[in-house]
Request: fold
Amino acid sequence: MGENVEVGVYTLSKALEISLEEHEVDLVEISPNATPPVCKAMDYKKFVYEQKKREKNLKSKATKVTIKEIRFGPNTDNHDYQFKKKHAEKFLKEGAKLKAFVFFKGRSIIYKDKGEILLLRLAQELEDFGKVEQMPKLEGKRMTMFIAPKKAK
Reply:
């Protein structure tokens, strides 16, 4: 039951009497499916408070994944490409996932192969900083590729 109550099998009325009258705490059912059901004498509000505190602590330790996007056109110039590649490098070093995509406007959809080559080139040049999670895939008017950062050693 509680901390200073001896463990044993009690009737419901006896257990309630011990927990409420003698120790002024709640009788909480721990395992209802056991025979006989297992109960514990404890301060329920304090228990709930500590439970929430533990959950909040675990949530704060969980890593949050940020996704940074880099957008290209199918005819992106070399200088623009290098500039955006530098940014992609920085994002991966910071530990963020990278979503690189080529956006096709109007009739530029005929350059699908150029877009794929551009994304594959980016993946190859960023090999030291991250690994490709999803190869270039065309969805509507954009070709998307995901790169996850490599774990720091």
